[in-house]
């Protein structure tokens, strides 16, 4: 067989080998992908670092007799006042609960002063740390406690809240996956205008999602990486959003190369060579930004770094190996009805982005200044962001535990229904109990379990949970007890305080790391100091403006009562890492034109015209996938999805199209300083000209 026959056989064999390897990989990792949702940890204490005071409390409680306690509050309420029959019914039901489950203490009724409510604290150590056993216990208590005839019965407390949150997070994976697939499907059909082509990148993205879930499970099992419902949801969005972006760029370039090459295999090789560097740099910036989260103190944030990274890398691997192989095997007919014929010329269309670029060149200084002022004005909306988000305000549709907490806050105004847990050395427990009772803001303090040298003290503040008054009480307990008696102060509200403190620390550490990592990657790709700095300034401005728009929408429009304390850091990481992507595609193309000898103004406009349509499509897809998060029942995910979606759209249609382009034209060759392209004497290199990314 001659060399030509050997080459032809090679071209036919390689795509089949690639597809075969992927099929084998899916068979191997499929069972592990199915276990991904089962490893998610969604308790507040799971988010916190081991060094936090409230985390130490939770760890010591696990070692006390019976292990971790599941604390519930059974709340009986009638707006007009409880009747004798109501109280009798409540007593009978609580007796049934006591008979059905091994409780830590005998439940005792705590009536409200206005006579409308009866609260029964119910606690059991039998579930321990087993989430499934806890859910069975909570659901069992709810099954026994029921109202009717105007009597409402709600089961609340920390244990019930954890169960409700677990159910919400458990429903997210499937809902988010199917909703995101639906959105991507619609957009791909509109973009490709083909009845077949959209199936290829969509199926490939689904394969990448399965691989990412298996890799996430492996990270958890091998290295103990914390996987939460939030990081799992974000990983799904990243895989489908970023993967579809890579597919759009590659498919667009492949379509062009099919007009130049007769064989699809050769056209795909040229396409990968032409846009591979940009796609690789794009995924590298996202991965580098996410890996900077490893420096975060919070387990949830540090875990999101590697979990998100494996999602991006899975998308990159699938879109640069499996997608090309499938497209080559399907041949030109996959583009039907607009099949690119060999030797044909693409239909010339009036480019919207060429028109936008031309309009920007007429008064570039005014365009740049106007855009900067607009972003600055939008960023002022940050001042209107609502305060810290409380747990009871974290749901768009309030579950039973939150309704119970709100009822208790209204009917027990001078007594918190949620205890603060103080863990003290057993030898000092009596002194700690007395000191806690003497602390300002404490309504009641009682002794709890003892074991292993530690004793439990349950403190009930006078202020409502997560209120400023309760915060002052927790801080007073820590200031008065921790150093003096060697205690630790925890509980749900203390966990929220530690969460906010850790997130403030993480912002100071992670933000500079992200900027440095992305800058280094841009420096290597663009061979310039000025261009990377320009892109970084642009994406930081987008982040501020997107947060500002959130401030104008969250409270006044959506009615949210608070802002998640992690929103600033996570939105920064994603918007900087993802936003730089589009700048990379634009500036990489601009650099190619400059290397080919084009003047700065021509290079900028050509880059905008040739990359505009594809990158605009990619931006819309990415924004739409993150916008799917706004349909979920958790306020933190709604806020994160909204800010990232708005930021991506701002970057795609304002910053990249107008501000980066006009700034590049105004800077001229200086945008490539100190590289050789910044020098006027750079020779024309027509051999370096390439087709659009």
Helix and strand topology:
Elements: H1 3-33, H2 44-47, H3 53-63, E1 70-77, H4 84-100, E2 110-111, E3 117-124, H5 131-144, E4 152-156, H6 158-192, H7 199-223, H8 229-258, H9 264-291, H10 299-330, H11 352-362, H12 364-379, H13 400-411, E5 420-425, H14 429-437, E6 442-451, E7 454-461, H15 468-485, E8 488-490, H16 492-526, H17 530-553, H18 567-595, H19 600-627, H20 635-667
Antiparallel strand pairs: 1-3, 1-4, 2-3, 5-7, 5-8, 6-7
Question: Your description of this structure?
Answer:
- Helix content is 64%, strand content 7%.
- The protein contains 20 helices and 8 strands.
- The chain has a 4-stranded antiparallel sheet with strand order 2-3-1-4, sandwiched between helices. A 4-stranded antiparallel sheet has the order 6-7-5-8, sandwiched between helices.
- A hairpin with a 5-residue loop joins strand 2 and strand 3.
How do the strands of the widest beta sheet line up side by side? 2-3-1-4
- Weakly predicted, low-confidence segments: 682-693
Total beta strand runs: 8
Structural class: alpha+beta
Strand content: 5-15%
Element pattern in H and E: HHHEHEEHEHHHHHHHHEHEEHEHHHHH
User: In DSSP terms, counting alpha (H) and pi (I) runs of 4 or more, how many helices?
Assistant: 20
Helix content: 55-70%
Which geometry do the CA atoms define?
A: elongated
Rounded radius of gyration (Å): 29 Å
Mean model confidence by pLDDT:
86
- State the end-to-end distance: 37 Å
Largest sheet: 4 strands, antiparallel
């Amino acid at each position: 067989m001659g060399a030509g026959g050997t080459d032809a056989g090679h071209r036919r064999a390689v795509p089949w080998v690639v597809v075969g390897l992927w099929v084998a990989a899916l068979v191997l990792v499929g069972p592990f992908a199915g276990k991904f949702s089962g490893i998610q940890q969604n308790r507040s204490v799971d988010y916190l670092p081991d060094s936090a005071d409230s985390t130490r409390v939770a760890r010591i409680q696990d070692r006390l007799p019976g292990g971790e306690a599941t604390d519930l509050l059974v709340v009986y309420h009638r707006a007009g006042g409880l009747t004798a029959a109501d109280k009798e019914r409540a007593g009978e039901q609580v007796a049934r609960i006591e008979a059905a489950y091994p409780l830590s203490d005998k439940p005792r009724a705590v009536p409200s002063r206005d006579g409308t409510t009866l609260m029964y604290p119910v606690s059991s150590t039998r579930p321990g740390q087993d989430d499934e056993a806890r859910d069975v216990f909570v659901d069992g208590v709810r099954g026994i406690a029921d109202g009717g005839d105007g009597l409402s019965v709600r089961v609340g407390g920390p244990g019930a809240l954890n169960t409700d949150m677990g159910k919400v997070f458990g429903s997210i994976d499937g809902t988010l996956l199917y909703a995101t697939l639906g959105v991507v499907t619609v957009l791909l059909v509109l973009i490709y205008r083909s009845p077949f082509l959209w199936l290829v990148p969509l199926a490939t993205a689904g394969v990448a999602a399965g691989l990412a879930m298996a890799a996430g499970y492996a990270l958890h099992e091998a290295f103990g990486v914390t996987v939460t419902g939030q990081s799992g949801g974000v990983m799904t969005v990243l895989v489908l959003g970023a993967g579809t972006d890579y597919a759009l760029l590659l498919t667009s370039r492949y379509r062009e190369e099919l007009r130049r090459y007769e064989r699809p295999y050769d056209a795909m090789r040229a396409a990968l060579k032409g846009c591979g560097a940009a796609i690789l740099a794009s995924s590298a910036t996202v991965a580098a930004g996410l890996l900077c989260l490893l420096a975060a103190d919070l387990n949830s944030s540090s875990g999101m770094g590697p979990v998100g990274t494996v999602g991006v890398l899975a998308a990159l691997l699938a879109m640069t190996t499996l997608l090309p192989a499938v497209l080559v095997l399907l041949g030109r007919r996959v583009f039907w009805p607009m099949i690119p014929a060999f030797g044909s010329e693409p239909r010339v269309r009036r480019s919207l982005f060429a028109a936008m670029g031309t309009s920007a060149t007429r008064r570039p200084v005014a365009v740049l200044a106007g855009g900067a002022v607009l972003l600055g004005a939008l960023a002022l909306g940050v001042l209107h962001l609502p305060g810290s988000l409380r747990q009871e305000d974290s749901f768009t549709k309030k579950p039973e535990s939150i309704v119970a907490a709100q009822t208790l806050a209204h009917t027990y105004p001078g007594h918190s229904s949620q205890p603060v847990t103080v863990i003290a050395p057993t030898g000092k427990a009596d002194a700690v109990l007395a000191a806690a009772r003497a602390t300002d803001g404490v309504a009641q303090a009682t002794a709890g379990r003892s074991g292993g040298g530690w004793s439990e003290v349950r403190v009930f503040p006078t202020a409502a949970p997560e209120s400023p008054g309760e915060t002052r009480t927790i801080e007073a307990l820590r200031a008065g007890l921790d150093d003096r008696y060697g205690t630790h102060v925890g509980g749900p509200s203390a966990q929220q305080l530690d969460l906010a403190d850790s997130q403030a620390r993480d912002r100071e550490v992670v933000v500079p790391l992200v900027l440095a990592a992305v800058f280094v990657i841009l420096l290597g790709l663009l061979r310039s100091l000025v261009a990377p700095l320009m892109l970084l300034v642009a994406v930081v401005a987008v982040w501020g403006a997107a947060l500002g728009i959130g401030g104008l929408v969250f409270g006044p429009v959506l009615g949210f009562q608070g802002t998640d304390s992690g929103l600033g850091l996570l939105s920064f990481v994603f918007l900087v890492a993802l936003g730089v992507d589009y700048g990379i595609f634009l500036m990489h193309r601009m650099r190619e034109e400059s290397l080919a000898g084009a003047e700065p103004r021509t290079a900028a406009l050509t880059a905008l015209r040739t990359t505009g349509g594809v990158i605009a499509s990619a931006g819309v897809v990415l924004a739409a996938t993150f916008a799917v998060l706004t349909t979920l029942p958790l306020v933190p995910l709604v806020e994160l999805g909204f800010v990232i979606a708005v930021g991506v759209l701002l970057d795609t249609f304002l910053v990249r199209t107008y501000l980066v382009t006009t700034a590049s034209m105004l800077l001229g060759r200086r945008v490539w300083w100190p590289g050789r392209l910044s020098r006027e004497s750079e020779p024309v290199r027509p051999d370096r000209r390439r087709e659009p990314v």
